[in-house]
Design a protein that fits this description.
This protein has 9 helices and 10 strands. The protein has 324 residues and is an alpha/beta fold. Helix 2 packs across helix 4 and helix 7 crosses helix 8. The radius of gyration is 20 Å and the shape is globular. Bound molecules: zinc ion (ZN) (3 copies).
Length: 324
């Protein structure tokens, strides 16, 4: 994510800021990827701390308008969970717009979101995250940091985050947008396998027997080995993590020996992200923290990542990437 400038005083401002230290109100415009100080606020500005400007002539912003179902705000904790979930969603959507997805010039279909809580006025619920025919269901429970840590441990997924959930589920949606093309499907199947294999059977097998020995030689995560659709979603989500990591490093002026960030081609940008992951792990260890990017990338997995990176760069199919 880039670091922005206050339009009034030019101080640096961050993506989630509602106002600048100079007291100017800040409104994020996802089309220009910048802030203005005089926008029409999204109708969820007060309720959810949404700092995006409303769509022209509409009440809600580009992100809030995609939420079709949300938790009941008057049930305990739901409002805070919903607000934090929307913050993760805005982050992921802002990144995707930089790659050309769901921007004004993108006339293709958009996903809709159902953000569901485990706590409802009629009792406990257990919404399952997933994507089906353009609808993305997100369980807001893990927007609570303690719940997230608890599930991260239970599921043994050290990289589990709300931003990651959005990137994974939206990647399923993007597959449905990309898979209309023959060249895409041919290359996809040669790398990931046949996605028409029975999904229910594959998942059942995965939950019974696990990923199996040697999964990391061919897959980015254990879950990616469950089915080609999950392999795509897991791998594409990693590309979105790594491109964002590289954009953030670029924004703070970081360099690494032998690497100047800001390459315009997607593959190089991805590889810069991977180098940064290694560097970030090394820095985290110096503070006694766990690895920020706890993955070892095998050659086959790198091929898959490069394919996903190329495909996700919708903005310029010739491979040019807009530096974030
Ligand atoms: Zn300012
Ligand atoms: Zn909004
Ligand atoms: Zn999935």
């Amino acid at each position: 994510m880039k670091i922005f400038e206050c339009p009034e005083c030019s101080s640096p401002v961050y993506f989630e800021n509602m106002r600048c230290s100079c007291a100017s109100e800040l409104f994020y415009n996802p089309e220009t990827a910048g802030f203005s100080s005089q926008g029409i606020a999204c109708a969820n500005r007060e309720l959810l701390s949404c700092n995006w400007a409303a769509r022209p002539g509409e009440a809600l912003c580009d992100s809030c308008v995609m939420t079709k179902v949300h938790p009941e705000p008057d049930v305990v904790q739901n409002l805070a969970l919903w607000a934090r979930t929307e913050a993760s969603k805005r982050w992921v959507l802002a990144n995707l717009k930089q790659l050309g997805w769901f921007a004004a010039a993108d006339t293709g279909p958009r996903p809709s979101f159902e953000l569901l809580s485990e706590t409802t006025s009629t009792g406990a619920d257990s919404p399952v995250m997933g994507h089906l025919a353009g609808k993305i269901i997100i369980n807001v429970a893990e927007a609570d940091p303690a719940t997230l840590v608890d599930r991260r441990e239970k599921m043994q997924e050290p990289f589990r985050t709300m931003v990651g959930h959005f990137r994974h589920e939206i990647s399923h949606f993007l597959f449905s947008r990309l898979s209309g093309s023959h060249p895409f499907l041919t290359r996809f199947r040669s790398l990931f396998g046949d996605e028409t294999a029975d999904y229910g059977d594959a998942l059942q097998r995965y939950y019974e027997t696990g990923a199996g020995e040697g999964w990391s030689d061919t897959h980015i995560s254990e879950y990616a080995s469950a089915h080609p659709h999950e392999d795509w979603a897991e791998t594409a989500a990693h590309v979105l993590h790594l491109l964002d990591l590289r954009d953030s490093a670029n924004a703070v002026g970081m360099t690494l020996p032998g690497t100047r960030f800001g390459a315009h081609d997607t593959r190089t940008a991805l590889n810069e992200g991977l180098d940064l992951g290694v560097a970030l792990n090394h820095m985290n260890r110096s503070m006694g923290l766990d690895d920020a990017y706890p993955f070892v990338i095998a050659p086959i997995v790198r091929d898959k990542l490069e394919f996903c990176a190329e495909q996700l760069n919708q903005k310029n199919r010739t491979g040019k990437l807009q530096p974030g």
